[in-house]
Amino acid sequence: MVKQLLILGGTAEATALARAALTRFGDDISVTTSLAGRTERPGPIPGQVRIGGYGSAAGLAAYLATHGIDRLIDATHPFAARISAEARQACEMAGVLRLTLRRPPWHQHPLDRWIEVDDMAAAAGIVSRIGRRAWLTIGASEIACFSAVTGVRFLVRLVDPPRRPLPLRFCQVVVGRGPFTLIGERHLIARHAINVLVCKASGGAATEAKLIAAREFSLPVVMLRRPPPEPGDVVESVEAALEWLTHPQQSSKPGEAS
Q: What percent of the chain stands above pLDDT 70?
């Protein structure tokens, strides 16, 4: 039975996992959730919480060894490729079993008008040819990719208010944290006369309502494809992750990730 669990978090799935692990295993497990510190006001998380990076894969490996971590579950955002790669490397260095908890992907509906791209530069390169009022739901770190776009008014949704003006020619910011409702997403699209949505293929239920609303309005969606998961065991639910904690050899591997 695992004694020391480190969850790489920052997602709703990570918080749900911490709560579920403590509920199921009680005093038999110590759960620490690690946050990068990018969100200013993270919600309450059961168990212990560590905020800040590790510097490198070697830094994370040293943390695993120093704190006697038995298992690591990577429950970061599907687009957090760098920390996921470092987690794999660190667990290999430290000899710690690792699991990826990856939220289920979205599946395109026949009425969806998705335009899939491989990087945000490609999204920025085509958005002005598709619409004049674009809704960006891509997080704060890649907004600058759109700084050279002309002829487009952007509506940008962020978890935290920006600390400085965004590097966009014309934009308005709305602040919100999921889960979002379909009624709310419909209202936002209509109020701001949105005619193109730009987002990441993050998956999960918390932000899927915007895609349903876009479908109802027949809006094109510029969709950044997910990066592939790191090699290793992958599950798509908290329950499956709990089973892995008890019986790691029974984990599933969506997409032949291992």
A: 93
Does pLDDT of 56 surpass 70?
yes
* Owner of token pair 């905020």: 51
- Look at residues 197, 155, 159 and name the one whose alpha carbon lies nearest to residue 11: 159
pLDDT over 70 (residue 249): no
Measured torsion, CA atoms of residues 123, 77, 169, 148, in degrees rounded to the nearest 10: -40
Handedness of CA 126, 128, 133, 134 (dihedral sign): positive
Contact between 249 and 116 (Cβ < 8 Å): no
Which residues, at least 6 apart from 125, have a Cβ–Cβ distance to it below 8 Å? none
Question: 218 pLDDT exceeds 90?
Answer: yes
CA 173 – CA 143 distance, rounded (Å): 12
Judgement on whether residues 145 and 172 belong to the same structural domain of the protein: yes
pLDDT single digits (tens) 65-82:
999 999 999 999 999 999
Any idea what the CATH number is for the domain that residue 216 is in? 3.40.50.720
**CA end-to-end span of the chain, whole Å?**
23
Count up the domains in the chain and report the number: 2
Q: What is the pTM of this model?
A: 0.87
Which tokens belong to 48? Answer: 């212990």
What number of other Cβ atoms are within 10 A of residue 193's Cβ?
11
Q: What burial class does residue 208 get, using C-beta atoms within 10 Å of its C-beta: 0-12 exposed, 13-18 middle, 19+ buried?
A: middle
Domain residue limits at 211: 113-224
